[in-house]
Fold:
Amino acid sequence: MNTESLGSIFLNAALVNNFVLAYFLGICPFLGVSGRMETATKMGGAVMFVMLISSMSAYGIHAFLVSIDAPFLQLISYIVVIASTVQLVEMFIKKISPALFKSLGIFLPLITTNCAILGVALFQTSKGYGFLESVVYSLGAGAGFMLALVLIAGIREQMNFADVPNISKGTALTLFIAGILSLCFMGFAGLGA
Amino acid sequence: MSNDNSTTKEKVTSTDEFIKGLWRDNPVFVQVLGMCPVLAVSNTAENALAMGLATAFVLLMSNILVSLLRNFVPKQVRIASYILIIATFVTVTDYAIQAISVELHKSLGAFISLIVVNCLILSRAEAFASKNTIGRSILDALGMGFGFTLALFCLGAVREILGNGSIFNVPLFSEGYQSWIVMILPAGGFFTLALWLLIINAIQTRKVKS
Structure:
């Protein structure tokens, strides 16, 4: 596994195995905040940042847990690191831009339960990535999350003006769009291999 | 999610507490919570059932513990403590599944660990178990857990039948059946869930009209 080049790790995480559309990680914010383009990009940025920090910490934690022979603490320590990083980001955003803080609302603390972030930490451990590879992997995953979020937000903004049957309004319609997007992303298969 | 709080405590009977998770407040079809495992491991009926039961177990245990501790945990750190409680039970489940069936553990993969971040469990802890007695919390967890399992099974069964031509690995059709590969792939997950939501919306709308 360690023979992969950094470029292919990035492409793999961002496009071929896109976290949202191929692994189904981070679906909740994907469905929740993708209504408007503006919030979608900001949410994407926040997630990318948390992902990067937690991935770097996860690398250190994993090395430490292996050295003291306590792998069963892995999950608990990862989630604690992610929760505290999110707390940090929350305070940071509140200080820098109260308006953005307001528009992200409940979804900011909910980044903690964004499975994509824990997913990155777990996958990089199980794939046995080194430090540099982990960083590239998390950047790729973050970029892929951002891409998927922005794509669907753009489509949903257009859909506001479409006349769809009443029963398919809301989540069902978003899921159909996501399905079609996921089909498109299948076209990338084989790119990173 | 927030309208089933303690305000209706006196009026709701115990059976109601159980039933609501199965249909009226079904976590997947109505509340749209915990989507990630729903879509990711519902490619066969067997995986879906195992995942549903594992989640239901964690939900039950964490609801019990959260309900027991509800008067001791300070408000400021409640979310962090809920997550720790959940993570503990998920670790237990992870090791238990590994001991029971290595094969199953492999096919569910990282998604067992990812039960920690299933919003359904956290939302039940926050919205229900932290405000209700232990008995009601158990009923609530059982209802929600079975509702979740049922929804997962609905998806898994449809995807396996169409995508593989079988159910629980038992072939259903003759050799000539051309399976719809797309149903097993990620896109199929989105489409199947969307279809189920359409059906349920249609039923609800008809009910309101009549």
Remarks:
- The beta strands of chain B are 166-167, 170-171.
- Chain B touches chain A through 40 residues (CB under 8 Å).
- Residues 79 and 126 of chain B are 8 Å apart (CA to CA).
- Residues 1-10 of chain B have pLDDT under 50 and may be disordered.
